[in-house]
Amino acid sequence: MSKSLYWNFLGCEAAALAQLKGEYNAFQDETPLLVGNYLHSYFESEESHKSFLDVNKKKLYKYGKPEKGLKKQFTDADKMIKALKDDPSFPYIYKGNKEAIVTGKINGIQWMGKIDCLNLDAKNSYFVDLKTVDDFHKKHWDDGQHKFVNFAQQRGYILQMAIYKELIKQTFGINARPFIIAVSKQSTPDKAIYSIPDEDMQEQLNELQECQEHIRDVIKGTVKPIPCGHCDYCRMHKTLGSIQSIDDIEIF
Ligand SMILES: [Zn+2]
Questions:
Q1: Kind and range of the H or E run holding 195
Q2: Residue 229 DSSP label
Q3: CA distance linking residue 73 with residue 76, whole number of Å
Q4: CA atoms of 188 and 50, how far apart (whole Å)
Q5: CA distances (Å), origin 224, targets 119, 156, 176, 247
Q6: Strand, coil or helix: what is 70?
Q7: What is the Å distance from ligand 1's center to 133 Cα?
């Protein structure tokens, strides 16, 4: 089941619109997406992982043949899985409904989300999203804020968790606490569990209200999408039409 259309527009609007029109595929290199799905299907259930391996065998195995073994990215993904499953706390935290679908409306716009692990049974309800990250400590440039931010801020994870929390409230009437369990793609994987401050999520939801109206107009075609200027799509469509001073080159 696909998530609501608006999710894509929280990243680069120009790329999202081109993708919506069928003019561009944002996943030119689908390996990072496959690595994420490989790990997610493992922790969803044994059957899900088996079926994922079967459906994607051409992409996962060397020469597309299981007898030749997994490609390096996926033996690395096995290391990430091992780092989590061998952790003494992980099985106690990562239990509940896997891939739970939640829906709702935020300021009149329909949203849908898929929660990796939703635990409504415990005295304190919570949900967990698994994230695969290159390196937790890598810095990412944020154009809007004009400063370096961490991976969670750069990838919009705080807003994502705020939307999930709101959709869980609307679907089940429960205020659940969000956690991100992140695991790194380094040769010895790093791992961490993060909480998200309520005020950060509220701030993001406030910004979403304005942003949603703009996205609606972009999809309608009445307003032009804002290009991020850095993604593959933006680089592909860059021209030498405007000259900038060499002093203005941003470094990140
Ligand atoms: Zn872009």
A1: strand 191-195
A2: S
A3: 5
A4: 25
A5: 41, 22, 37, 28
A6: strand
A7: 20
Ligand 1 centroid vs 188 CA: distance in angstroms? Answer: 32
Distance from Cα 18 to the centre of ligand 1, integer Å = 10
Low-confidence residues of the chain: pLDDT under 70: 1-4, 122, 252
Enumerate the domain spans of the chain: 6-235
Structure tokens at 79: 């290391």
pLDDT, residue 192, reads 97
Contact indicator for 38, 77 with CB cutoff of 8 Å: yes
Closest by Cα among 53, 74, 36, 75 to 181: 36
Check residue 191 and give its pLDDT.
97
Helix ranges (H only) for the chain are 6-9, 13-20, 31-44, 46-55, 57-60, 72-85, 90-93, 151-154, 157-172, 198-220, 232-236
Overall CATH class of domain 6-235: alpha beta
- pTM for this structure? 0.85
Ligand 1 centroid, distance to 15 Cα (angstroms) = 6
Pair of tokens at residue 35: 């690595």
CA of 238 to the centre of ligand 1 (A): 10
DSSP character string of 94-159: S-SEEEEEEEEEETTEEEEEEEEEEE-SSSS-EEEEEEEES-TT--EEETTTTEEE-HHHHTTHHH
Rounded to the nearest angstrom, the distance between the alpha carbon of 199 and the centre of ligand 1 is 28
pLDDT at position 2 is 40
pLDDT tens profile 113-158 = 999 999 998 678 999 999 999 999 999 887 777 888 999 988 889 9
CB 135 within 8 A of CB 190: yes
The C-alpha angle 237, 3, 141, rounded to 5 degrees, equals 45
